[in-house]
Fold this sequence. Notes:
By secondary structure, this protein is of the alpha/beta class. It is built from nine helices and 14 strands.
Amino acid sequence: MSEGSQTRPAWIAVDWGTSNLRAWAMDARGQVLAEAASEDGMGKLAKAEFEPALLRLIGGWLGEGPMPIIACGMVGSRQGWCEAPYRSVPCPPLDPLAQVAVPTTDPRLAMRIAPGLRQTTPADVMRGEETQIAGALSLIPDYDGVLCLPGTHSKWAQISAGEVVSFQTFMTGEMFALLSETSVLRHGMEGDGWDDAAFDSAVGDALSRPERLAARLFALRAEGLIADLAPAAARARLSGLLIGAELAAARPYWLGQPVTLVGEAKLSAAYARALALQGVTAPSLSVTDCTLAGLTSLAHQAKAAR
Length: 306
């Protein structure tokens, strides 16, 4: 659908995270007609600013009547536009009857938000990843095993009989960003180079001795000062240490289980490499494909439920 086209979508899919807003104009078959994105993430908006931010992005796709919009992500958090209360696991990743209708000023917007999931013991939550999980299950039907969703806060989810049985979150991505950009380690992390051998070695170190993680991290700084550790090797080792520590803690999820990755290509490749070092072959699915497939499955279920 080109800009200015009179063709209107059947519905609009929205993935609204903390930092970014993405939207797709969809036809009745679930095919993408157009897409748009902005930096109007949840973290930058007050309550009254969500509707104008959405209209700036999708206004050209709207007609005169109400447009069905299905959203997932942090837009449904307490700090978002309208809170969509968590659903408790074990449960299917999405439930069309649990969607929350969003009050809007513009009558052209008929918006609903998919709730996230929560786990009581140990305490854990997710928002947005439940839609990616639903999309993955629609792309690989009858999947029983583990889904790993690398990201700022990576998730490991046990899947059985179409339900999320349990999950665990790791702040690995956020820790990498903080350590490489704001800690003392930043002085040796210039550029975006990479060293596969350094990454592999660090994964092994963290898996074998996770209790030494803090000491291994400072060694990156020390080696930069006294042994001229290259920035590419330092960055790769930092990533390997953090992912290795995550794998050590998540061992009950991946040991002896089928594992599929859902994430951005470069990050998923790092996790796949780390898992391969442990003898685990983990195929990858695109996070965008899974998000769209999940929102499409919700749109079809919601239509059938009406």
